[in-house]
Structures are given as C-alpha cells and as structure tokens.
Design brief:
This protein has 121 residues and is an alpha+beta fold. The chain is built from two helices and six strands. The longest helix has 16 residues. The two termini are 19 Å apart.
C-alpha cells in the first residue's frame, strides 16, 4: 500500500529545498507489495515528467530506490551502491526534475558499475 497521499500529490516532484531531498533515504529491507507499488509509481511519474531517472525521495518517499530509463528499457535499483566508475569522462547537457528550469553541462564518467537489488531480489 502506498503512503496515504493523493495521486496528484504523489505526481508532484519534490524540488530543491525540500527536506526529504537532503535526508538520507532508508534502506529497503523487504521487497513486498508496497515496494513493488512504489517502483511502478516511480516509473509512471518518470514517464509523465519526461525524465530519464527518478529517485524515491523526489516523490517524497524516503527509500533507497532508483528507476532509470536506459537504452529504451526501464531499470529498477533497490538499495543501489556505486562500485566503480570508468576513468573516462564525458560532458553532457543535463537537467533534473527536482531543479526545474535549470540545465547545465555536467561531467560524468562514461560508465558506472552499480550493485543493488531488482524486484526479484
């Protein structure tokens, strides 16, 4: 069951300055129906907002969950951990759903190795 907020409230992206974005998100201990529902909702919000990635705190849910649209496929990462970054860096133009109206050139590693759980554990 999702947190008791209206669908409209859940669709609102939390923006810069919201305390939930500064708080350390909680580790997911059990992948139950509530977590599955949150992941499904996150993918829906990301699609509706034309995002390429979304973290649960961005919709006001302080859980370590991240969804990503990469290579025309949705990926769900639960309790993600960055384990390795390539030494090669590329600069690209990016924006963030939680910082609306601001875009910047950002230098990022061209590849990253991430460990975490999916919905199957």
């Amino acid at each position: 069951m999702l947190p008791s907020r209206t669908q409209e409230e859940i669709m609102d992206i939390r923006t810069y300055g919201d305390p939930v974005l500064r708080k350390k998100a909680e580790t997911v201990k059990i992948i139950d129906q509530e977590i599955r529902d949150i992941c499904q909702l996150m993918v829906e919000v990301m699609i509706r907002r034309n995002g390429v990635g979304l973290a649960a705190p961005q919709i006001g849910i302080s859980k370590r969950i991240f969804v990503l649209d990469a290579d025309d496929e949705f990926h769900i990462l639960i309790n993600p951990e960055m384990v390795e970054l390539s030494g090669e860096v590329e600069e690209m133009h990016e924006g963030c759903l939680s910082v609306p109206g601001i875009d910047a050139i950002v230098a990022r590693a061209t590849r990253a190795a991430v460990e975490g759980l999916n919905l199957d554990g």
